[in-house]
Amino acid sequence: MARRKKVYEGKAKILYEGPEPGTLVQYFKDDATAFNAEKRDVIDGKGVLNNRLSEFFMTGLTSVGVPTHFIKRINMREQLIRAVEIIPLEVVVRNVAAGSICSRLGIEEGTPMPRPIVEFYFKNDELGDPLVSEEHIIAFGWAAQQDLDDMVSLALRVNDFLSGLMLGVGIKLVDFKIEIGRIWDNEFMRLIIADEISPDSCRLWDIETNRKLDKDVFRRDLGDLADAYTEVARRLGVMPQGPSGVSKPTLIN
Ligand code: UDP
């Protein structure tokens, strides 16, 4: 069988041509990178966990009427998605101060936001994904005002959905990043959620202990990243047996 054509390879995922026009296959790698790929490692099982978690979040969003690129999971590491034209902006929503907002504005980590804050970053590795304003986005033509309004509204709907889901399993959704793409139905353009939603792109803290259950475990060397992601998946009822498919031994009293 001919090898599928690779369309794009990023830090954590590979995109292949899909079986039908307008589709792609998204493959989740085990590679972890941080600080613009200055820190890197391979974390066994991360790709499998993120494939399942992204499927779980995207299908949940679809069920509450938020459009996403997800079509179906194909296997442990791959999912079928709709091909979109990615808007070159990372959309970040923050509920609690952490990460770059703390260093940029001198806010103490853990400070709750008075309301969810939506930020845009220009996707450009060479520039280190700089924070940009709506003025920049419109002036440089990355998106139109109507797109921006739709993006903010989509991001806040994702925030409401994910925060509630996480709260239900004792996890605080501190912040997250999404990417949004354009699709055309005949001459009508629509925006849909693309890329992935996983602990790679969210900050997730245990409500009781503030234990970090996200990529900060890797960024700050706080322990085993796959264990943290497995804990998120386990609480949500996704892959209760862990990424290897084998249950860990349990103590019988
Ligand atoms: N984020 C991401 N990809 C990026 C930058 C940020 O997924 O290239 C996520 C990050 O995991 C966090 C949120 O977006 O959940 C906000 O990140 P922040 O701006 O604080 O930057 P960081 O501290 O990650 O550099």
Describe this structure in words.
The chain has helices spanning 46-63, 100-105, 134-139, 145-167, 216-219, 225-236, and strands at residues 6-9, 13-17, 23-28, 31-34, 39-42, 70-73, 78-82, 85-86, 89-96, 112-122, 131-132, 171-185, 188-194, 202-206. The strands form three sheets. Strands 8, 9, 10, 11, 12, 13 and 14 form a seven-stranded antiparallel beta sheet that branches. The chain has a five-stranded antiparallel beta sheet with strand order 1-2-3-7-6. Helix content is 27%, strand content 32%. The protein has six helices and 14 strands. A hairpin with a 5-residue loop joins strand 2 and strand 3. By secondary structure, the protein is α+β, with helices and mostly antiparallel strands. The structure holds uridine-5'-diphosphate. Uridine-5'-diphosphate (UDP) is lined by residues 90, 92, 99-101, 129, 175-177, 201-203, 215.
Low-confidence stretches: none
User: What is the tally of helical segments?
Assistant: 6
How much of the sequence lies in strands comes to: 25-35%
Structural class: alpha+beta
What ligands are attached or bound here? Answer: uridine-5'-diphosphate
- Provide the helix percentage: 25-40%
H and E order: EEEEEHEEEEHEEHHEEEHH
Q: How many strand units?
A: 14
Shape: globular
Strand count, sense and barrel status of the largest sheet are: 7 strands, antiparallel
Distance between the termini: 52 Å
Helices and strands in order:
Elements: E1 6-9, E2 13-17, E3 23-28, E4 31-34, E5 39-42, H1 46-63, E6 70-73, E7 78-82, E8 85-86, E9 89-96, H2 100-105, E10 112-122, E11 131-132, H3 134-139, H4 145-167, E12 171-185, E13 188-194, E14 202-206, H5 216-219, H6 225-236
Antiparallel strand pairs: 1-2, 2-3, 3-7, 4-5, 6-7, 8-12, 9-10, 9-12, 10-11, 12-13, 12-14
Helix pairs in contact: 1-6
The protein binds uridine-5'-diphosphate (UDP).
Uridine-5'-diphosphate binds at residues 90, 92, 99-101, 129, 175-177, 201-203, 215.
